Amino acid sequence: MDVILNFERPVVELRKRIDQLRVLQDEQGVNLAASIEQLEEQADKLQVRIFGNLTPWQRTQLARHPRRPYLLDYVDAIFEEFTELHGDRAGFDDAAMICGMARFKNTGGDDGCDGQPVMVIGHQKGRNTKQNIHRNFGMARPDGYRKALRMMKMAERFKMPIFTFIDTPGAYPGIDAEARGQAEAIARNILEMAKLTVPVVALVIGEGGSGGALAIGVANRVMMLENSVYSVISPAGCAAILWRDRAEGPRAAKALRITADDCLELDVVDEVIPEIMGGAHRYHSETTSAVNDALRRHLSQLIGMSPKELVDDRYNRFRKMGRMIEHPPAIDE
Q1: Could you say which of 38, 131, 235, 270 has the lowest number of CB atoms within 10 Å?
Q2: Statement: 58-319 belongs to CATH 3.90.226.10
Q3: Euclidean distance between the first and the last CA atom of the chain, given in angstroms as a whole number
């Protein structure tokens, strides 16, 4: 069943009407070309008006849309010979964190990436209740982060570039995760990723929540899809702390500056990958193609660097992050 967000409903319903007219035209042989053309023009204008002026909260809703491409969708579209690797070597495996070796598909381009072996690591959410229970809604436990670190070290040993795909509300805050050292696992990943001697490219494909995102986000290049979000806390969580009301999430989303454009302005990310107007959840192939181009472009820039240059590049990237504002605007503004 398709999930339709309230603000996009007028466009979706208008396009459904257009599809119905096309079916009617084909089945009954009635010439409705003029009406269809007029409605298509209206739909295009309406889509531009809605998606050209999205609020931070609306972008948060798009980032969480269950029909957005997930990690395994990008793996299928961009890579070949993907082999998933399991286990943290401490007795656990975490289905919320997927890791595996793969090769770039051959495209015949001149970027030198065709057939390049890589390590792919990222959060995976589910499309339905059963899948989400299995994947824990994309919230990894310490086992997942330790598994990810083990694969990063393996990639470093075999001189393989690393790609991480971030899509999580945050690391799982349950008692079992805390008991097994959630905070230590995240901190260890941040420390070890800073020292990796191979290229690391990270991409926020949906939600980039708190330390759960940063634990696989210490990279030479960090990118975001246009309708993704990256934040120290979820808008609802922030609202619950500041105003004791999770319903104030839209207000918090604006104050947190969590959108891709905000993160680019603050040097939190290096590039924003545009989505076709209407959102990645409606244009899978176009989105995966744009991501493929971006990954290849950044890898081609990094792959010639020496191990020391890669570590220094990563260090300098995080040193320049952020902006100082002497008189920040009030939250209500």
Answers
A1: 38
A2: yes
A3: 38
